[in-house]
Write a structure and sequence with these properties.
Layout: H1 2-28, H2 37-63, H3 74-85
Length: about 90
């Protein structure tokens, strides 16, 4: 009989330990964001803008044999749009 009582008490102890562990982990593992989602989106848009500007400057300066900073000027884009629209 003593063996039966020991085996019955062991699962109760394990259940108690499991419930204690789940209580600890639920309190310990709180989910929070370091950066809010809107800040992540702004950061991604900023990176896209920088990558587009860098690509324009490399394409216009290296491939097109122009001055790299001229790719960011409105006068250059006006000239390109005039050529595309057939005004020049």
């Amino acid at each position: 009989m003593t063996n039966e009582t020991k085996t019955n008490s062991v699962p109760q102890e394990r259940k108690q330990k499991r419930s204690d562990k789940t209580k600890e982990t639920s309190i310990r593992w709180m989910s929070f964001r370091l950066f809010p989602i809107w800040l992540r989106l702004v950061f991604i848009l900023l990176l896209l803008f920088i990558a587009a500007c860098a690509g324009l400057m490399i394409g216009y300066g290296v491939i097109g044999d122009g001055e790299p900073l001229d790719a960011l000027k409105w006068k250059t884009w006006r000239h390109i749009l005039d050529i595309v629209n057939g005004k020049e």
